[in-house]
Amino acid sequence: MIVPIRCFSCGKQLAGLYEQFKERVEKGEKPEKALDELGVKRYCCRRMLFAQADLIDEIMQYKR
Question: Any idea which positions bind Zn(2+) (predicted)?
Fold first, then answer.
């Protein structure tokens, strides 16, 4: 939904890296290479960015 600000396991800041990661992957770069170049080395942090699903735009359509 919303990109986590920090990794749930180790606490590394990740929110600033998500947009760069998303742009690189959309341009056709391999996700593994993009994460390596962004300095995301730990498995826990890679999981946070790699498994992120952008659902906020879909959820914003529904109101109470």
Answer: 7, 10, 44-45
Residue 38 annotated as binding site: no
pTM attached to this predicted model: 0.75
Residue with tokens 């998303």: 22
- Is 44 annotated in a binding site? The answer is yes
Identity of the residue numbered 4? P
Q: Is 34 annotated as a binding-site member?
A: no
Cα 59 → chain centroid: 18
